[in-house]
């Protein structure tokens, strides 16, 4: 997995930011499609919304789980890239490691795939989803009144 890149909402250190109440979100791509615009825009919106964003990049399920545990994140965001089966496996791996950890997913997600992910308790944001809705969902899932 490429080294995770931290985008802090404040100038404090990573540990101090988490202890200080800033929710941490891991964003990772589950497909090697090379399309970065969507996840980059979402990362910026979440950072601007007051979250600390850890941009994991293109990652395997094991790498995402390891980063979620090592970084002690409050939420995981997956860029599905049309590969719902991969996302389902990653969600299962995350739930095995950290059952309480909420997950949201975005990217190219067919309606039938969105239904399958929602059945797993995953919030789903297909292309064109409003950024404010994604940030609001992140606040809800992390318990962050933020803003």
Annotation field: number of helices: 6
Note the beta-strand portion: 15-25%
The coarse silhouette is globular
| Number of self-contained structural domains | 1
Helical coverage, percent range: 40-55%
Biggest sheet: strands side by side, in what order? 1-3-2-4-5-6
User: What does the main sheet amount to?
Assistant: 6 strands, mixed
CATH fold name: Rossmann fold
Beginning-to-end CA distance, first to last residue:
31 Å
| Helix/sheet category | alpha/beta
Uncertain spans, ≥5 residues at pLDDT below 50?
1-17
CATH 2nd-level architecture: 3-Layer(aba) Sandwich
Write down the Rg.
Answer: 14 Å
Mean pLDDT over the residues = 85
The CATH class is Alpha Beta
The count of strands amounts to 6
Order of helices and strands: EHEHEHEHEHEH
Say which CATH homologous superfamily is assigned. Cobalamin-binding domain
